[in-house]
Write a structure and sequence with these properties.
5 strands; mainly alpha
């Protein structure tokens, strides 16, 4: 999904606290978080701002400067409401949730979350352990070394599997560093993200930020969360079916079967992200946002070095057949290890339309659209702490080792505010994801039958 729409350079507003801030093209281009700002265009972004920038003195300094410079408008611009006609309303309701809180109830809940967030910060749960992050880094390096050792001993399949596991573990680390969970200084986090991301596994740090920050800001929101856009081979919400029909997409006839081939495509996720990383980094010199243009060279060099190292490693494999087999096993295994985690937490939950009022309530949005996986010592390690996805989404800058500690506090907050806290075993969550896909598949099947009937007449 591309957030930078036609007319994106036109001014819009964000509400932070009691002030509406005018965002012009200059301010938008200078935003270090890329297009995440656009997800709250003309909305109250107070909670999401404080949540995303918990440890950033620079962000608060920048906010203070903007507040001084920009006058408060006479009245906040309203989001345009898209009216669904009767023929499409049922389609667009598939997998969609409903939000019934009044503005007063929502404001009270947001205030409660602000108090809760301050409590969590005071408890020191946003502070990272250098020892923990050093241990995770050297664990990943050890896995890479084991993979190379097994290759040297000519145990090529074992080497490829260990390499895939190393990439998965490094994937959790790039995720943590791009969320600025370790160091208080963003620059150190960025440099570590280039090492664990670009250099060691071929994922673009900036590309990851651009996609992932948007996902956090507007989780499971139609037209805002890019993770919902899996077209043309999958449709996660009803509005995407209409898009496929309007484009007369040749893949539309596959959608009735999407819940069957979903699982088989999970291993391809890493290959998809590698491709996206190369594409993103190759075009960073001309990116709309200043931050990506400024970091283009370091990203291009580090990503090039990654593939150079891969080429050297493959040079020492005995023949072309072994190289191809090694590539497929390592990449597909890593893809599956990543995908079975990242597809569990949100695809199994309800979604909301683009103009849903739940966007005014950050905590409520995260709790309605996020599911935890049952925890355990091994799962905590294998899943990189993302089995505590609820806690992570409420506090994205919280280091992994504190997610389990804050969990009882989050459960208490949910209980006090009559909010859901969804946690299930893997099979339950996986089947709920399949159910969401099957709901769309069923509607697609009906649309295809109706279209065939129209042609036959």
């Amino acid at each position: 999904m591309v957030l930078r729409e036609k007319g994106e350079h036109e001014d819009f507003y964000l509400k932070i606290g009691d002030r509406w801030i005018r965002v012009d093209e200059k301010l938008l281009r200078s935003h270090p978080g890329g297009s995440a700002m656009l997800t709250y265009k003309n909305l109250d972004a107070t909670t999401v701002f404080h949540t995303f920038h918990a440890n950033s003195k620079y962000a608060y300094k920048m906010l203070k400067e903007v507040m001084v410079e920009q006058p408060k408008p006479q009245g906040p611009p309203l989001l345009e409401k898209t009216e669904n006609n009767s023929s499409n309303s049922n389609i667009e309701d598939v997998n969609m949730g409903k939000y019934h809180l009044s503005s007063e109830e929502s404001a009270r809940m947001c205030k409660n979350f602000d108090i809760f967030r301050a409590k969590v910060r005071k408890a020191g749960l946003l502070d990272a352990s250098h020892v923990f992050f050093a241990r995770k880094f050297f664990e990943a390096l050890a896995l890479l070394c084991f993979a190379l050792f097994f290759q040297y001993k000519e145990y090529y399949v074992a080497s490829a599997l260990i390499m895939g596991l190393a990439w998965q573990q490094l994937g959790w680390m790039i995720h943590e560093y791009t969320h600025h969970q370790h160091f208080k200084t963003h620059l150190w986090n960025d440099w570590m993200s280039y090492i664990v991301g670009n250099l060691l596994q071929g994922f673009s740090s900036s590309g990851w930020k651009e996609q992932h920050n948007v996902h956090h800001a507007a989780t499971n929101i139609d037209g805002r969360d890019g993770d919902l856009d899996l077209l043309p081979f999958w449709a996660t919400i009803g509005s995407q079916l209409k898009e496929l029909i309007d484009k007369d997409s040749v893949t539309f006839k596959l959608i009735p079967f999407q819940h069957f081939y979903w699982t088989f495509a999970l291993p391809l996720l890493r290959l998809s992200w590698l491709t996206q990383s190369v594409t993103f980094v190759a075009t960073m010199n001309t990116n709309f946002y200043n931050v990506y243009r400024e970091r283009a060279l370091v990203e291009q060099i580090s990503l090039t070095l990654h593939w150079l190292l891969v080429g050297i490693q493959y040079y020492y494999l005995p023949n072309l057949e072994t190289r191809v087999i090694y590539f497929l096993i390592s990449q597909l295994f890593a893809g599956f290890l990543i995908a079975h985690v990242v597809t569990y937490n949100h695809y199994s939950c309800i979604k909301f339309p683009n103009n849903a009022k739940i966007m005014e309530n950050y905590a409520c949005l995260q709790l309605y659209t996020t599911r935890n996986m049952t925890s355990g010592t091994f799962i905590d390690w294998l899943w990189g702490g993302l089995n505590y996805q609820i806690e992570h989404h409420l506090f994205p800058t919280m280091p992994r080792h504190n997610l389990k500690k804050v969990m009882p506090m989050v459960k208490e907050f949910c209980n006090e505010n009559n909010l859901p806290y969804m946690v299930d075993d893997y099979t339950t969550g996986f089947l709920l994801t399949i159910e969401q896909l099957r709901n769309i598949a069923s509607v697609a099947s009906t649309l295809i039958r109706n279209k065939s009937s129209e042609y036959s007449q």
